[in-house]
Each structure stands twice: as structure tokens, then as C-alpha cells.
Amino acid sequence: MLQEKQSGSWISLHWWKAIGSALVMYSIIAGLLGKVPVLPILHESVRNLYFHVTMWFSMLAIFSFSLYYSIMYLSKSNINDDINAEKFAKTGILLGSLGIITGSLWARFTWGAWWVNDPKLNGAAISILIYFAYVVLRNSMDEEQKRAKVAAVYNIFAYVLMLVFVMVYPRLNEVDSLHPGNGGNPGFSSYDLDKNMRIVFYPAVLGWILIGIWISRLSARIEAIAYKQMNISTDNKINENDEII
Questions:
Q1: I want to staple 58 with a disulfide (CB 3.0 to 4.6 A). Which of 17, 34, 156, 208 is the partner?
Q2: What is the mean pLDDT of residues 68-91?
């Protein structure tokens, strides 16, 4: 009975991880083997939609979680919120970097170059660099509360700048962009995302978001355990010194 209860509890806690893993596996297999529309220029490279675009959707979601935890830290000064904000930001950087890599590969086969002077691409690269600066800023300070507060404030500005560079600036009418959905170019919703691709694309987005949450929460839990052990060790050293005195 106890074993069954523990098994049921495990399922109730981790069901979303299983769903995320299943959706990612489904999207990878269907993305490589499924039917895609026959399009000029893109051809079979349109399959990268399942990998490149999903990275950016997932990145936006994960950065949103990081923003939430930074706001929560400024509101409650709970160190766990600071830890979560950092880990979600790092996961977002990972997803954004994968988005840039897959986008560069796609550009090579469709535009003939690994990188072009495009506002969407440049904005994406700048956004990732802004979040890299967030990590550098955190590592440059030793005092815990100061580091957490400054990082939280910076994270809020980083999120706003990321939205501007990725979503606002490339959509301005005067900006000429090769990227679909910008500068007068048709977006995927009206260009090539047909019904066969939708049943893979949207599950892929959800799956990668769940995996991103899983990675972030796991790394945050490890960090929280290390932080707790460090505090216990520090307290023991203080007590030992008190006894010596």
C-alpha cells in the first residue's frame, strides 16, 4: 500500500515532466519524418520551423518566468526567488542560443550566408548578449542581498529591452527585414504553417517550455540545497569560534 501511495504521489508531482518529454520526442520525430508543404526556396529546410521557432517561443516563456521571480524578490526579498530568477534566465539564454544556432543554419541554406545584416537577427543576438551581461553582473558582486537586488532590477530592464529588440523594432514599417513576418514578408501563420505542421509545431512549443521549466527548477533546487548547506557550515564555524572564545 505504501509503495502504491508513493508511486501515485510521484505521478501527481511529475506528470508534466513526462508530458513535456513526450511532446519533445514527438516533435523531433514528426519534425524529421512528417509531411511538410512544398515551398520555393525553403524546400525541406522548412522543417527547421519545429526547432528554430520553438526555441524562441520557449525562450520568451522562460524569460517571463525569470522576470516574475525577479519581481517577487523585490517584493518579498526571498532568496529562493533570486535563485529561481537566475536559473530561469540561464535556461532562457540556452534556448536563445540554440535559436540563434538553428537560425544561422537555416539562413545558410535559404539566404546563402550564416548571418546577414537583418534587424531581427541582430536584435536577437543583442538580446542574448544583454542576458549574458546579467550573468556577468551577478558574478561580479559578492554581497548576497546587493547582488540579488541589483540583478532583479537589471533583469526587469533586460526583459523590456529583449521585447523591444525581438518583437517591436523588427516590426516597424520602415525596417527592412528578410525574416518572415517582418518588413512586409509573410509570416509563418499565413505562409507555410499548414494543418500538418500545426499539429507538430504547437506541441513542440509546449514541450520545450515544459522542459525549460524542468531544467530551471532542477538547477534552482540544486542551488538552494548548496546555499542551505553553505549557511549551515558557516553557522557551525561561528558556533565553534564562540565556544573557543
A1: 208
A2: 94
Q: Which amino acid is at 51?
A: F
d(CA 40, CA 189) in angstroms, rounded, equals 17
Is residue 163, in this structure, part of any structural domain at all? yes
| Alpha-carbon gap, residue 128 to 151, rounded angstroms | 16
Q: 60 in a domain, yes or no?
A: yes
d(C-alpha 141, C-alpha 10), whole Å? 39
* pLDDT surpasses 70 at 65: yes
Q: Is the pTM of this model over 0.90?
A: no
What's the first-to-final CA gap in the chain, in angstroms? 54
The answer as to whether 15 is a domain residue is no
Identity of the residue numbered 131? Y
Q: Are 46 and 37 in contact (CB under 8 A)?
A: yes
Question: pLDDT (tens digit, 9 = 90+) per residue, 16-41?
Answer: 899 999 999 998 898 888 777 776 66
Please give the radius of gyration of the chain, using alpha carbons only, rounded to the nearest integer: 22
CA distance 220 to 82: 10
Q: Is 1 helix (H, G, I), strand (E, B) or coil?
A: coil
